[in-house]
Amino acid sequence: MENEVRALRAERGLSQQQLGEALSVSRQTINSIETERYTPSLPLAIALARFFGSTVEEVFHVNSNDQ
Amino acid sequence: MSTATTSSRARWWHLPAFSLFLGAVMFAAAWIGDDLRAAIFSFLVMAAVAALFALGGRFETIRLMRQPDERWSAIDLRATAISGMSVVTVVIGAFVVELARGQDGQPWSLIGAVGGVSYIVAIAFLRWRS
Predict the structure, then answer these.
(1) Quick check: B1 and A38 CB within 8 A?
(2) Do A24 and B7 form a contact (C-beta atoms < 8 A)?
(3) Do B3 and A32 touch (CB under 8 A)?
(4) CA of B10 to nearest chain A CA: how many angstroms apart?
(5) pLDDT of A21-47, one tens digit each?
(6) What is the DSSP letter of A15?
(7) Which residue out of A19, A21, A29 would a mutagenesis test of the B interface target, given it has the greatest number of B Cβ atoms within 10 Å?
(8) Is A1 on the interface with B (CB under 8 A)?
(9) Which SS3 state, helix, strand or coil, does residue B107 take?
(10) Among A21-30, B46-55, B62-71, B82-91, which stretch is predicted with the lowest mean pLDDT?
(11) Which run of H or E residues covers position A61?
(12) What is the value of ipTM here, to two decimals?
């Protein structure tokens, strides 16, 4: 699943560590989401979207391989 | 809504304490079995593991083992499933070999039965819960 997490995080000048701490997950989890190796749970996806003042649909995009 | 699936419940000392507890159980078992050397060795190994978990908080992997987030919990679940499948494969293999040797298949049949029944109970419970 493609996502805008890296771009949104970079826009705000945050490190993966800082974003992870804000969402109570590890830096590795943020890195795995950004590199699209891990698809977050719905609660974490919503928390990420809320953190960036956005919606889940704007942050995460389902591509044809995910369906 | 919480994104920290288990970290709020898991405490940093749970894993070291459990390692020490296991060490104490192994110590007692070996001591009862009249092998003081094995008892001390087992306890020291588990105490070293406990110390690694307790003092290794500087390392991210150990921090995650002590207080897993949702990705680590998912990894742990899959690793447990793989490990369980390995054990099941060995149990079935050993059971078949014992039968071929003219034995009754004990204790492998009992271990297999415990695994099978617990799997069915877990499936029923988790289906009921979800």
Answers:
(1) no
(2) yes
(3) no
(4) 13
(5) 999 999 999 999 999 999 999 999 999
(6) -
(7) A29
(8) no
(9) coil
(10) B62-71
(11) strand A60-61
(12) 0.84
